[in-house]
Amino acid sequence: MISPNRIKQILSLKTNKGRKKEQLFIIEGARCVQSFINNSNLVKEIFMNKNFAMINKKMMQLCDKQNIIYSVVPDKDMKNLSDTKTPSGIIGICMFKPLPSIDYESKRWLYLYEISDPGNLGALLRSAAWFNIKNIALSKNSADPLNPKVVRSAVGAHAYLNIYQDIDYQIYFNHEYFIIGADQNGPDQIENSDHNKKIVLVLGSESRGIDTSIKNKMNKVISIEKLGYGESLNLAIAGSILMKNIAIK
């Protein structure tokens, strides 16, 4: 049984203010929790319901191995703590990841301009981790990367990535980066990039795209050629295609 005060503290982590105050955030779902445990030392505590604990003994063994505190809680508490309509049966509490200083020698950056949809942001972070684009910058007016829906959609990518918030795109011009913007009507076609070049890929929100004043300063504005039928690609899909083309092994 979790005390009412503890439940209140955990529920506060669903808000930006609560996360900043406690320096903690919520992870949810077996794959997400396992990914964080395997790839970081950020997991502080885990809660699971009785049914999950009965059929996932390996998770408890993993917690024991990593010296992570875990508790089996009633279904009503799990439902209260969960951010989904149908709880998976496990949530974790993680510490904020200490961020290194911004590395201006990094060959690849993903810059996300005013991406406000948590699902899209999480999916883009998941793809960035897959394509080894480790450094992510978010502009102002972007979704909080530690929003529970973002974390859930990223399925553990946060443990691998360095995610910087409130970054002004201008900094990249001061460090000799080649800036590539994505736009549905971009004049240039996507192509494989020079691996020796320092590149920043800029993606804008589905509704507004990239601000024209920013787009006009970019080295290249690219689009993905349509070969069949459709009005547009989902932002996360388009972003993943573009990341594949600038990726470095």
UniProtKB/TrEMBL annotation:
Record-annotated RNA 2-O ribose methyltransferase substrate binding domain positions: 26-100
Taxonomic lineage from the root: unclassified sequences, metagenomes, ecological metagenomes
SMART domains: SpoU_sub_bind
Name of this protein: RNA 2-O ribose methyltransferase substrate binding domain-containing protein
Any one Gene Ontology molecular-function term assigned to this protein's record: RNA methyltransferase activity
Organism annotation: marine metagenome
Family classification: Belongs to the class IV-like SAM-binding methyltransferase superfamily. RNA methyltransferase TrmH family.
UniProt-listed Gene3D superfamilies: 3.30.1330.30, 3.40.1280.10
A Pfam family hit: MRM3-like_sub_bind
GO cellular component: cytoplasm
CDD domains to which the protein is assigned, alphabetical: SpoU-like_rRNA-MTase
Annotated keywords: Methyltransferase, Transferase
InterPro entries xrefs: Alpha/beta_knot_MTases (IPR029028), MRM3-like_sub_bind (IPR053888), Ribosomal_eL30-like_sf (IPR029064), rRNA_Methyltransferase (IPR051259), SpoU_MeTrfase (IPR001537), SpoU_subst-bd (IPR013123), tRNA_m1G_MTases_N (IPR029026)
Any GO BP: methylation
